[in-house]
Specification:
heterodimer, A: mainly beta, seven-stranded mixed sheet, four-stranded antiparallel sheet, B: about 110 residues, 9 strands
């Protein structure tokens, strides 16, 4: 089954304890992205990657790191989590098509609910 | 990307067509209309997109007015599982890859 998986789905942690949220897709998509969703603020992009070893900042990258060593995986790293990173996180992937390298529809994972105390 | 305006909420009876409107009066010629939905706290789900012609797929139909200033997403036979927040987004081809969701329309399908 074509899907985007995230782990863990739920995580409660303490301030400053490094954590990694994994994201994997089995659709051979070039594009992958991380979003966070907060009440009243909608969906905001953290980082994205157009291909292996190519990553770029989104709108809210501070406090996050990513890597894209292989096409299928795009982990999100919080080196020193803080309470303001408590949020619902979504990973997404998409094929990249056309000469303008357009990102078509995005496929989202089930989400990771992170609480930092 | 152009701004969109959607009603905050709508109700629909199960089995009936759900028609969700979206205004995008400042849309430019190279901007596409996309629809996504999000069932409570699940990952957003792509539904359909179009430029100027009406589009239909297995999930829904998209009707875009001739002047492209508004569109309507049609779920032909709504079920309880279609209860979700529906987001209308306009995006430039080859433009920003990020999705910017507004507040969307909360559709409640009633039995």
């Amino acid at each position: 089954e074509a899907q985007v998986t995230q782990n863990p789905r739920y995580l409660i942690t303490v301030t400053g304890k490094k954590l990694t949220v994994t994201c994997s897709q089995n659709m051979n998509h070039e594009y992958m992205s991380w979003y966070r969703q907060d009440p009243g603020l909608g969906l905001r992009q953290i980082y994205y990657s157009m291909n292996v070893e190519v990553t770029d900042k989104g709108d809210v990258p501070e406090g996050y790191k990513v890597s894209r060593k292989e096409k299928r995986n795009f982990p999100l790293i919080l080196e020193s989590p803080s309470p303001n990173q408590t949020s619902l996180y979504f990973c997404a992937s998409s094929p990249v098509v056309g000469t303008v390298r357009w990102v078509y529809e995005q496929y989202f994972g089930p989400g990771t609910r992170l609480t930092v105390t | 990307d152009a701004k969109t305006t959607q009603p905050t909420s709508m109700d629909c009876a199960e089995g009936r067509a759900a028609n969700l409107p979206c205004n995008h009066s400042t849309i430019s010629g190279n901007e596409y209309v996309y629809w996504y939905r999000q069932i409570h706290s699940q990952g957003p789900q792509y539904i359909i997109h179009g430029l100027k012609n009406n589009e239909t797929n297995e999930m829904a139909s998209l009707i875009i007015t001739e002047d492209r200033k508004s569109s309507t997403l049609i779920l032909p036979h709504a079920t309880l599982r279609d209860t979700a927040v529906y987001y209308c987004i306009v995006r430039v081809e080859g433009g920003s890859e990020k999705l910017v969701f507004g507040k969307g329309t909360k559709l409640t399908v009633n039995p």
